[in-house]
Amino acid sequence: MALKSAQAFFIGWAKKPPKGLRPFLWAISAVLIGAAAGVSFGLGVSVPDPGSGSFQWGAGYQVLEGVVESKPYPVLRVKPEAAGDTAKTILLSGVGKRGVQTRADPLDGQNVKVGGVMLERGSISMLQVGGKVQITPLDKPADSYTPQAAEDLGKWRLTGEICDGKCYSGAMRPGIGLAHKACANLCIIGGIPPVFVTTGAVQGTNFFLLADPAGNPVPEAIYDVVGRLVTLEGNVERRDDLLVFKADFATVKYNW
Q1: End residue of a domain, out of 143, 174, 203
Q2: How far apart (Å, rounded) are the C-alpha atoms in residues 50 and 169?
Q3: 187: closest CA among 119, 52, 94, 117?
Q4: Range of the domain at 96
């Protein structure tokens, strides 16, 4: 009997655990491994979905033609390829955390060629302007294009999050949330178009180009609001497939 008790006693420096303790140790090991796997799975599913946004490197360098509009932030009103095609408005950014305001302002309202690499996420499209074409006036007046006038859709109240358009459309993933606040603010300070991403689809889209009530770039007060779930009121206008939210930041309500 004394020998059996000695065999069941755990000795830390022994090469093998005693036979009497092995079932218990196997059970404890299985429980700990299962718990670690459960925690890992929980952490994985709790991470925000990075979305489908990305640089369209496979499409290569693209040159688009259309009318550049510099307010509130530079966009390109793209000339449809054929009669009856839906017109498209594309956000414009520079390389890195820089906008293209200084290049777009002198050409506001003119027909231009713009070259760069596309970013896309859902219904949002952005061209990172760069390369040899940049933003260049068309040299053939016959190719000029006149986009439709902006359509006023009235005053709306929207709930969502303010993001920078470049990271949200795929330059960073997920590019949303409070953890991305500092990065988003740096992009917006540098001239990247800010977007308001709604909690649900509105008029078939989940994002709006953001402006102040007069249709100008957003004020510095926006920096405190970025990355948080908020409700804002303001007027909305449509430019082709792009909706512009002229938000009144005095109406901001924090939802968390």
Answers
A1: 143
A2: 10
A3: 94
A4: 54-143
